[in-house]
């Protein structure tokens, strides 16, 4: 179990180092007056700091190394 958790942390950390964020589109209602509705597409961006991926990789390596018996 611990070794699997460590490997998952390493993989997630590597992905976070490669992609430092992502953008998605969300529909937002601008006007909602009974039967009349106006909506617009808004782009939202989610970013995380690159060092967070490095911390996850180091933590995953530590868990894998310490889980060996």
Please describe the topology of this protein.
Layout: H1 2-18, E1 21-33, E2 36-47, H2 50-67
Antiparallel strand pairs: 1-2
Helix pairs in contact: 1-2
Order of helices and strands: HEEH
Tell me the span between the first and last alpha carbons: 13 Å
> Residue-averaged pLDDT, rounded?
90
Strand residues, percent = 35-45%
Question: What is the 3D form?
Answer: elongated
Transmembrane segments: 6-25, 46-66
Keywords: Membrane, Transmembrane, Transmembrane helix
Protein name: DUF3185 domain-containing protein
Organism: Mucilaginibacter pineti
In short, what is this structure?
The chain is α+β, with helices and mostly antiparallel strands and 69 residues long.
């Amino acid at each position: 179990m611990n070794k699997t958790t460590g490997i998952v942390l390493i993989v997630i950390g590597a992905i976070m180092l490669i992609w430092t964020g992502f953008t998605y589109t969300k529909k937002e209602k601008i006007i909602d007056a009974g039967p009349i509705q106006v909506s617009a597409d808004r782009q939202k961006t989610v970013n995380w700091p690159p060092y967070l991926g490095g911390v996850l990789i180091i933590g995953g390596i530590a868990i894998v190394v310490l889980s060996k018996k």
